[in-house]
Design brief:
Putative_hydro-lyase; 217 residues; lyase; D-Glu_cyclase; D-glutamate cyclase activity; four-stranded antiparallel beta sheet; 7 strands; globular; three-stranded antiparallel beta sheet; alpha+beta
Length: 217
């Protein structure tokens, strides 16, 4: 997160970003700008809208465990097809905090065969700081999450299913944007977020992330 309000370059813990010229306003591939709970535009540079009152938070992403899945012979489909991972609005409620009430989780999805799911769970479980293991899987799991049409994601792109595969769902870093939407005009000023599928690459390695525990940073 930003170490000093308004400072787009000071980050803690410092090991996360070691570059001296890091700037949270420009170093993401693409941003969303929210006002009154609505996304009003996308842009590649926040320099002229960032203020002295803004503070940034860096949230873990499930992309961080995908190298481990690939190394185990279980590469995510979107990596093979060159698409953006599919993301969906779920019916899992977020814990309320202050003005942030009424929001629900976003989940990402990767297709796998049922016999591979336990191995997928085992591999991703080690990455607790980047969402950990799946929250649901299978077609019944999709229904339990309130997802009725896997072919039409709310964010990202549809994924191709091979014969016998089922959807596997993880928590997703797009979720805070849904909390902002739910807060609506209770938030004063502009809120910025990454465009889904356009994340920041940090200096932490996958091995570093396995050592982190939720709440330790």
């Amino acid at each position: 997160m930003s170490a000093v309000p308004g400072n787009p370059s000071a980050v803690r813990p410092t090991e996360c970003i070691r570059s001296e010229d890091f700037d949270i306003r420009t170093d993401f591939p693409k941003y969303r700008v929210y006002s009154g709970g609505k996304c009003i535009e996308t842009r590649r540079d926040l320099s002229d809208v960032w203020t002295k009152d803004h503070v940034g938070f860096l949230i873990g992403c499930s992309f961080s465990f995908e190298n481990a899945l690939t190394a185990a012979g279980l590469p995510p489909r979107h990596q093979k097809t060159g698409t953006i991972v599919a993301m969906y609005r779920s019916n899992i409620p977020l814990l309320p905090a202050g003005i942030f009430t009424g929001g629900h989780y976003i989940v990402s999805m990767r297709p796998y065969r049922p016999e591979h799911i336990e191995r997928v769970r085992e591999i991703t479980r080690a990455y607790l700081s980047t969402h950990g293991e799946p929250v649901a899987w299978g077609w019944d799991g999709a229904k339990q999450l309130g997802i009725l049409d896997v072919a039409n994601p709310d964010f990202g792109e549809p994924q191709t299913f091979e014969e016998g595969e089922v959807p596997v769902f993880w928590a997703c870093g797009v979720t805070p944007q849904i909390a902002v939407e739910a807060a609506s005009d209770k938030i004063e000023g502009l809120v910025f977020a990454h465009e889904p599928g356009h994340m920041l690459v940090t200096d932490w390695t996958a091995e570093d992330l396995q050592k982190l525990k939720p709440g330790s940073i």
